[in-house]
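Reopening: structure tokens for the zinc ion complex, inputs below.
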Amino acid sequence: MTRYKRYVLLPDRLFDGKGIFLDKPAVVVEGKYIVDVTSRGSLEVGEHYSIIELKGVTLLPGLIDAHVHFSGLKTYNPAEAVVTPLELRVLRAAQDSQKALYSGFTTVRDCGGTIALSLKRATAEGTIVGSRIVASGRPICQTGGHCDIHYLPLEDVAKRGNALLCDGPWECRKAARIALRDGADFIKIMTSGGVGSEKDDPKHPQMSIEEVKSVVEEAHRVGKKVASHAQGSEGVKIAILGGVDSIEHGYFLDDESIELLLKKGIYYVPTLCLVEVYKKMMENPPPGVPEWRLRKQEECIEHMPKSFIAAYRAGVKIATGTDYYGPPMRAFGHHANEPITMVKYGMNPVDALIAATSNAAECLGLSYAGSIEKGKIADLVGVIGDPVADINSLKNVVFVMKEGVTISRKVD
Ligand SMILES: [Zn+2]
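Re-run output (same inputs, fresh job):
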């Protein structure tokens, strides 16, 4: 890493994050910020400028994965979380954050877990190099809900402290206050069962509208957002009617839930790349994966692309999120799989790039990130090739800058 006062980046092409492309641009960075975006011809270069030539490169805003979990886990075996020392999991998570950054994802949102709150601080204070983290800390759910640990006695779940279990509006309100006390940037709730929780069903709703409203009220009072894990359409509706800001997964959307997403302008983070993971796991189940998990995944496969494309065609705001948390096929560093899968299932590549940049930034409430514009943070990623012609070029990352600091550069 080298620090200069002022950089001029000269890629072949630029995508601004909102839909505009520029050929032969010059992007001027000073300190942490972009101070100018202009054409190469009109730029007057002073002596104190350091030129970064990026030949053959398309420059993009730092990419954003709106849904990860820094778990420090490496397998699908549910017992791993119990038998692996927390210190080891934290060290793995620190490496995962670095992998995300080097793959061009300068910001990730951790949607539930205790490690991310400290990882975020360690990154922000410069102790480790990694992606910027937006963290919820402990997620909130009902007793027996998706973030409960179903195979442990209830008192052990409380002792482990990985989630905030609550029932009734007042308990949920208190759980929200505890999450905020922990330092949550946003609050994560669960309004449906899930694939990774043994004794519930993705299609069954969890929490009541009143419970959701009490959490949302606490979060919104302090200017923070609420994201809901909601897979079945009933859970999606409960979350939306309760006032949440984003729907995570939405595997089984019906017309009414799509209508509600549109009407309220709520973000949809479909975590669509998991459909490919689920398909591969059916063919070749990894060691340790429980039978119930495979069965639930299989039920989702058919519906996930259908829900995604229906919401996309209806005009719902979509942001990229992988739900990667560590094990094979869901490992950090492969976050481009989400925009790539979105294109595979029918999204226009430009829209997929928007979903991974300006839309994701808006979904997270980061007004300073997600686009290449004067005044925005200098999170910049260079890929070889043209991601509109071939979205897979998002995997050819040759340049990463975060907050004006060059993290990696593989081109002259
Ligand atoms: Zn998740």
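Residues 67, 69, 111, 323 surround zinc ion (CB under 6 Å). Residues 19 and 351 are 8 Å apart (CA to CA). Marking as resolved unless the reporter disagrees.
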